[in-house]
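Re: folding output
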Amino acid sequence: MEKIKHLAAPGLILGLLAATPSLAQEPIKIGVVTPLSGTYAGIGQPVRWGLELAVQEVNQSGGIGGRKVVLIFEDEEANPAVAVQKAERLFQVEKVDFLTGMVNSGSTLAVGQLGERNNKLVSTTVSFADSITAEKCSPNVFRVNARAEQQSNALTYWIGKDTKGAKVFAIGPDYEMGRSSVAAFKTGAAKNNVETVGEVFAPLDSKDYSQYFGQIRAARPNVIYTSVAGNDTVRLMTQLDEFGVLRGVSVVGSSGTITSQNITAVGKAAEGYVTGSGYSPKIDTPENKKFVEAFRAMFKADPDLFAADSYGLIYAYKAAVEKAGSTDTDKVRDALRGLTWSTPQGQKTIRAGDNQAQQQMYIVKIKNGQFDVIGNVGAEDAIGPDRCTRF
């Protein structure tokens, strides 16, 4: 019996040694909670595409620290309650290492709180509400896209220079992002001598915007600012055009309002639209040209802002994990803070004080269905102050 024990032990040891490398090569799991149906499905789709392209490239080049990356998708329906439920499953059942994808700013805030409770890191590549990296900031939440203030600083600077005597009426969706974006625009407008003459907030998935047109006409604006997105953009812009509200009025707004996904449906009403954006497929750099070519080859479409930011996130996470030498939450958190990395949009840096990405902003105008870059604002001028006090 003693001899049998001694014979068994080496086999057991060899078995354990053989198992160790396979454990080390387990894939890195990234959870993606994003709208794949409903009003914001047109935003969730480019988020998915951007992530998938980056992960394909990373895996083809050896993965992250030698480990392959796997994306696990859940549909958040742009609903914070649904987003939390889906994120909880990804954390508890799928044991994801990292989570991203949220579009609705309320979803990002709610999932961020869940990330803290689970000691997991969360990032948005879409949500604009300033509060996410300001008064409601979380040490576990990172934003790699430009927040509302960055967009508004760039846009109001341009309006102040381009349209003398500008009088702006604002239309926003009635939730966290909409109110935050309008507030940020008004703050930027005041700095740049741009007058705001009124505002309305419409529920998500509004079918009839004409009920607000009387207020708009009474205010006599020569510029309309809007931060509606997805399918709501199509209805708003179409109705503004059909009811003649756009005559003699220019339209500006959020970078997520008119995108590659909805510009065809918006049609001629999109012509002349101006935004302060972190991205255009026409950015004239070798890095962006390579990205656009790869994106078109894979998806037969142009990348938009959401696709570019989502693509860049994977490379930020890769750099952080390889710097940390681990997917451990505390180590990756430290590695992400202050991280500088290259993207198709240009170089970005995550500001350590609030986990907000700093980046050059572009003034983009739609001409003949193309997102032309007509100006830019430097990262330091666009970012705004650090208002996070929690960490």
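--- second protein (sequence, then structure) ---
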Amino acid sequence: MSTIQDVSAEQLAKLLHHYREALAEDFHCNGKGSEEASSSWERTSQHERKLMVAAARLALLELSATSSPNDPFRKYFAKPGEADWGC
């Protein structure tokens, strides 16, 4: 399984675009049918592609900045409810 660091913004944007197109019909949106979904990224305007890649880049930055509970830099901090209180 890939980690956030292994995923490029372009890959994420392309996948999000693909799934948006694939799910649009289920959500009664004006999306294209699944037969066009595989090539729709190539038909997307450069402006829309750049916008989606920029949004994906920001999402990846935010996800990678969020520290996970197993983050080794947090080893000295107790998990919620596990701290020993006393003097």
